[in-house]
Protein 1
Amino acid sequence: MKVTVDSKKGLKTNLKVFIEKKTIEEKIASRLVELSKTVNMKGFRPGKVPVDVLKMQFGKAIYGEVLENILKESSKKVIEDKKIKVAGQPKLDLTSHGEGKDLQYTLEIDELPTIKLQPIENIKFNDYEIKITDSNVNKRIEDIAKNQDNFKDKNENERAENGDMVVFDYQATIDEKNFEGGEGKNTQIVLGKDLFIKGFDSQLKGIKKNQEKEVVAILPENYPKKEYAMKKAIFKCKILNIKKAETIKIDDQFAKNLGAKDLNDLRQLVTKQIQDQYKSRLETIAKENILEQIEKLHNFDLPKNLIEQELSLMTQDLKSQEIEKNKKNAESIAKKRIKLGLVLNEFGDINNLKVNEEELRAGIQKQVQSMPGQQKQVLEYYQKNPSAESSLRGSIYEDKIINFIKQKAKKITNSISVDEAENILKLEHEKKHKDHDHSKKKKTISANKIKTKKSKKPTKTKANNKKIRKK
């Protein structure tokens, strides 16, 4: 086999590969001998078919099989011998081939860039300790209490008002006809929240228990049966009960109802919950800031095919005119993603960072625990979707690399209050919103400039208050 460099420009290398016909013929002969020992053919004993007969009968098929194997093996060896780090699938183009001929082909290879990692000791990031006051804890517990259902029956002569729960049966009609979904039993709504059908609550104000009330409402646009959407319906309601919300007493029993041992235990759990909530969100900001610094520290060319692949993934659900409109912005994002991915992988490789099976299982378990009531479905999802598991492994790997970088970078420790944490998060949100608007404005101006010339079609680029349990 003879290999020559046809051309090399940037990260793109073109190689010419030449393989003598003698090598091909030897492999064909070897394959024919191998087949002669196993093939069955009429008129010959098993394993006794002459090679010449096999060549006459299956020559073209065997040549095709041998050619495919030679191309696969030789191209792999070429890349290994030249110590090329391939970015994506190389393009192979046959220039000369055929039975009884030498084989010539070209390999067009996009190479991964050589990355010189920059010192990370000067990278800075903020690490926050959240000071939780009794006032913070009291407010969170009071908010939890407000969201607990605690309704007591009102007297029969008391009328319904905002904040009361009304329990009723109803039969609804459209144009004096019953319709599917137009009947309900023991329906419960809290007046003032307007969560049933828009404008429904207000018509039940002032009613009493055992009273009948006719309510007129427009069915929502997203009504399950589309033929009834936006239609006027008349609801004949029979009021079964009216309940008044009562303030929950915050005591040991209240804490036990939430899964804590007592009120003091609940306070400790809530303190940790608040700390974890803010720390997690602030760590996300720190991570984004570290990635931004890493991206700016490194400068190298990127393989065009990787940029094209990333753009294809980013825009796969967009229309062609949206893609063209946001092309420049999308390309910038794609380049940053690829650059960061290559740099982080280099950090991981050089420092021998890997995600083992135990870490992956722990990651899956964390996802399972984050979805109360759906643990089984989440677990099955990861078991049945290798791509989901692969994505999670990538996320764990990235976090591992970031944590490694944090150990070498300059940590600035800040002790802040909940109000200060809220302010940091607010400023970060406003910054992202401003950047988004600025980018959008630039794209609009650019689009207007294009239109003044010749219009090209433009393109686009918990805290849930449920039971608190100890982990």
Protein 2
Amino acid sequence: MEKLKISRDKKVELYSKMVASYPDAVLKGDTIPYTSLNGHMYSFLSKGDEVTLKLPADERVKFIEKYKTRLAENYGIVQKEYVVVPDDLLENTDKLKPYFEMSYNYTKTLKPKPTAKSKKG
């Protein structure tokens, strides 16, 4: 029997709980909730109602195999650094937290993106 899909509202709640479990993370965005660090997004809840995490290459492969999931895809484009978090893992914050922390720490190693300069009129 197929498990019922979690509603978007419930996913937002679970995603928010996961972000709140990590003290350095800040939830941003209204319609597309996400987390970012130094200009790099490292997790988000897509319009397709999938929670995704940015993971280093070796951990990405392990995660996909362990949780029988896949790389994230948005607007027809495969996002090579992001994995889809399965619903049952999203419901288990304690099991998911180490991966969220790994995502944060991986993003911390990336070169900061330059900030956009405001246009003066």
Protein 3
Amino acid sequence: MKITIVGTGYVGLVTGTCFAETGVTVHCVDIDTKKIENLNKGILPIYEPGLDTMIERNVQQKRLFFTTNLSETLADCEVIFSAVGTPPDEDGSADLKYVLDVAREVGRNMNHYMVIVTKSTVPIGTAEKVKKAILDEQAKRGVSIPFDVASNPEFLKEGDAIDDFLRPDRIVIGTESEQAQNIMKRLYKPFVLNGHPIIFMDIPSAELTKYAANSMLATKISFMNDIANLCEIVGADVTNVRKGIGSDSRIGDKFLYAGIGYGGSCFPKDVKALIKTADQNNYSLKILKAVEEVNEGQKSVIYTKIYQYFKGDLKNKKFALWGLSFKPNTDDMREAPALVLIDKLTEKGAQIVAYDPVAMPETQRKIGEKIQYASDKTAALNDADALILATEWNEFRVLDFELLGKLMKNKLVFDGRNIYDANEMAENGFTYYGIGRK
């Protein structure tokens, strides 16, 4: 079986590589010439654990190819996945420019039946726009070549994407024909041998499912952060509250950890897009609007604690910042809470020395020399007025209190992810601030 993946970003690379792992011949296409040149040299544009070795293996086995020419990949191609970006417009709606560009190019070059699958997260109704774009291009050519469109949203967690793809909880596919359904069923057969289902549905429902899933998870995060803020006011501890409600099987214990807000490429964008879709249909998603409001405010919670502790005098204060990416096991800095913290602290004249295991190059690309970058986590601590934890990488979880005490100017820790034990901090002479804790 031969397929084409258009877009070599996070979703496209993982999707194409995992399909190639099952023996499918995969051509990954991107208009970025430099990115394709790098991929052919084994240089990846993203960090995802295990992806580099899997790509290398499938390239060597001649199952995975990278090119800038979409038309040359279409011969004998059965399925085309559109995995290009859908960045948010200023009003929060998803920009479909790249999705429709792909559809038009397919319409200009296709010569046999194929299934065109939208893998990107797109608003409800996008499939109809894709179909129209293809038909318009065929009409210009004076041809009528049958095809189907489908929606196949991804449910990948950055940092664990390969396992998510190879062993999915479920696969959601929106189709309009039995022929398209059979082709997609054949393509995904290796991934459902674990007994988890392929859920076939109509296309609008599939398009909405991804937004609904991410918005529900974002809601759990913002709800718990709101509860955490209340905990501090009334003298409760959010870690105990989390255990108490997380043990309820109706609620579950995932996404109930208080912190400094969600970020990344999915939750912020998808919440905004779903709110915009509802507004365009004269319906207000009040809960999601509150979710977004809570999240934006949560990104400033640690800054407020720091500001209050130092009584507003942050000029020339030096802070060690551990973690930059929006979550561990990725270098993704999109909507990262650490960026908000950096902006607020540096505006007040503070100095920041940061360390992140993989995200420093991407941070430097985004903000340049606004902060200093340490060679390791220990180097960031030298003469620091306080340690701030923004991302819960595993290597930050166990502290050497003696070393911290020697290197830092003050025994002061601001924990944005609640990974440290407050009692242990106190026993070692440290002043400790978490989220929603006594």
